[in-house]
Amino acid sequence: MSTPSAxxxxxxxxxxxxxxxxxxxxHRAERAASWGLALLVICAFLGAVAALSLWPxxxxxxxLAVALRVPVxxxxxxVRLRTTASxxxxxxxxxxxxxxxLAFQWGVADGVREPPDAxxxxxxxxxxxxxxxxxxxxxxxxxxxxxxxxxxxxGDGDDVDRESPVATIEIEGTARGKPWGSYAVAVRExxxxxxxxxxxxxPTRRFDLRMxxxxxxxxxxxxxxxxxxxxxxxxxxxxxxx
Length: 242
Fold this sequence. Notes:
single chain; about 240 residues; alpha+beta; Alpha-D-Glucose-1,6-Bisphosphate, Chain A, domain 4
């Protein structure tokens, strides 16, 4: 259960204006990338028609459109974050309806809800409201009592790795009943105060090639979005696998 002190600490650390600006910049760039990809298909169609004829041009456009929709890769990776916030406040933030690592999702959603069963959903509309989508989250917070405090008060970064986490959070996302994303979060007390957060991105689904530009845009704004929420990206690695 969220404590009042943790909620107040979280609100004070978030630079809402900066976060809104980063999310708006991401959303504009992501839409531009999506439209650019659509324009690429149109140019390929027009080029094929000019070089060949109408029906070969249609065939080229169809093949390209289908190829872009074939799930071919998975995203996996990890990130380490540092923050001056207490482990208790960090655990509450990551177990909330708006975890910091999903700012681009809840930040652009048309609506965010948290039903009584602790499943959070982000609702989206696109194509001028003609189509809708939703992401459902299942969040499991596990506090490890009596761990992560002893020798972590002194030492270097290696000591953090050896310490048991103060809390772990499992975040599972689904869209239309299918896996959307999975994150394993471990919160530890930093040797010099504050917290260290390790996040593992689990490859639960395959992405099609259309998602590559969106991923590149998200990578560009990722650190800025977390900085606006009071987190520093210390290490981050993301890779694509089949």
